[in-house]
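Ligand: coenzyme A. Inputs:
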Amino acid sequence: MGRATATAIGRSLPVGEGRVHATHWWIVDGETYLGAIDLRHYLNAFLLEGGGHIGYSVRPSARRRGLASWALGAVLLKAPALGLDRVLLTCDDGNVGSARTIESNGGVLEDVRSTETGVKRRYWITLDDAGHSHSSMAATRTVAS
Ligand SMILES: CC(C)(COP(=O)(O)OP(=O)(O)OC[C@H]1O[C@@H](n2cnc3c(N)ncnc32)[C@H](O)[C@@H]1OP(=O)(O)O)[C@@H](O)C(=O)NCCC(=O)NCCS
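Predicted complex:
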């Protein structure tokens, strides 16, 4: 598996109104694109409400192979370098695959709330200095199969 190709957005560059600095990675297997994941460097009010620090997607043909879980774990390792000791992850209520991805990486559910982009499950992952989650995987599993 080719791991990640990063396109870092320089923090010195200005961002537009309502935008934040972020780093974007592609998940690739050789020359084949499999998915992508973003790490937002900080939250604004919109992201705190329902967007979170990290977003990801995996192409349909590559799903259910552990890619999103792996990519999230890999990106969490990058968070401490940005000064983040915890990160917010959200998903649509009912997005079982994303909820499981978050929970298996130590996400602790804070709440489920209505936002301007729909009903969101909001999770925090608390990190140690190396970017490993403090939470146990089993204790945070809340979504039934
Ligand atoms: C959500 C998404 C990123 C998951 O990617 P993935 O690579 O298939 O996820 P993984 O293979 O790492 O699976 C993670 C867990 O979710 C489970 N899962 C994944 N898709 C699932 C589905 N459709 N239904 C039920 N469980 C699912 C897996 O079985 C696994 O569970 P486990 O930890 O108990 O083994 C992918 O389905 C996707 O891109 N969806 C569209 C975009 C999206 O929803 N992005 C997230 C926005 S918050």
